[in-house]
Amino acid sequence: MSELIVSSYNIHKGVGTDMRRDPARTVQVIAELGADIVALQEVDRRFGDRRGVLDPDILRETTGLEPVALTDRLGARAHGWHGNLLLLRGAEVEEARAVTLPGLEPRGAIVADIRVAGQPLRIIAAHLGLLHQSRLLQARFLSREIEGGDGRPTLVMGDFNEWRLGAGCSLMPLRRELRAVKRSAATIASFPAQMPVLPLDRIIGCRRAQIEGLRCHDSALARKASDHLPITAELRLGQSVQQAIRPA
């Protein structure tokens, strides 16, 4: 077995804890991750023309990651869908859909079916709502997206705005998907960036996608670049994957 590095990062529209908008700093943090799959949240301005805050060309050159193109976006100048953007290294995109999540707030997710070194994987990148009842509806929606696939391993990532564990957790509809997946329900505090106490950001493996080594990327730059720290983990895949996407 080999591993891919996967990451989720709420970039807070490029505004750091010093209240400065510095997209170049954000890109440098993404480069620090060294990840193969990255789910970003809050990459677009929320109002007006909803333009993206990053430079896609600089992002590619600096990180080696390729943004997944979406045909449906909230605005012509937006990077993603409701602020969600998915970045990949060395993967073939079979289909990428922008979906609208239920709830009182406008929220969305990206559902992408990809192949890495010929192996199928579904990625769901999402930013869930602030209200408990909305998150519950959204977790049910994501569970149906997992069940409605072709049986391929599935990775669910994003800022879920949920810090509770146990019966009060709004993510409980995803519990059935986790039963056969070792360590996938682990959490780690990622917010606020300068002194993390709440596990708002999640990486969840479903349908034989094995997640290990969940951790925060806690660098000096990351503590300044956003109010969230990025989280990373290893995704266990087949033997040939690592060599195929990162040739010597």
Question: Mind explaining what this structure looks like?
Answer:
The structure is a single chain. This protein has a single domain, classed as Endonuclease/exonuclease/phosphatase (Deoxyribonuclease I, Chain A). 20% of the residues lie in helices and 30% in strands. The protein is built from six helices and eleven strands. Helix 1 runs parallel beside helix 2 (56-63). Residues 179-185 and 239-245 have low confidence and may be disordered.
| CATH level 1 name | Alpha Beta
| Envelope shape | globular
Question: Which architecture per CATH?
Answer: 4-Layer Sandwich
Number of strands: 11
- Find the CATH topology: Deoxyribonuclease I, Chain A
Percentage of helical residues? Answer: 10-25%
Termini gap = 18 Å
Give the radius of gyration.
Answer: 16 Å
Unreliable residue runs: 179-185, 239-245
Structural class: alpha+beta
Number of helices: 6
Tally of domains: 1
Q: Note the beta-strand portion.
A: 25-35%
Fourth CATH level, the homologous superfamily:
Endonuclease/exonuclease/phosphatase
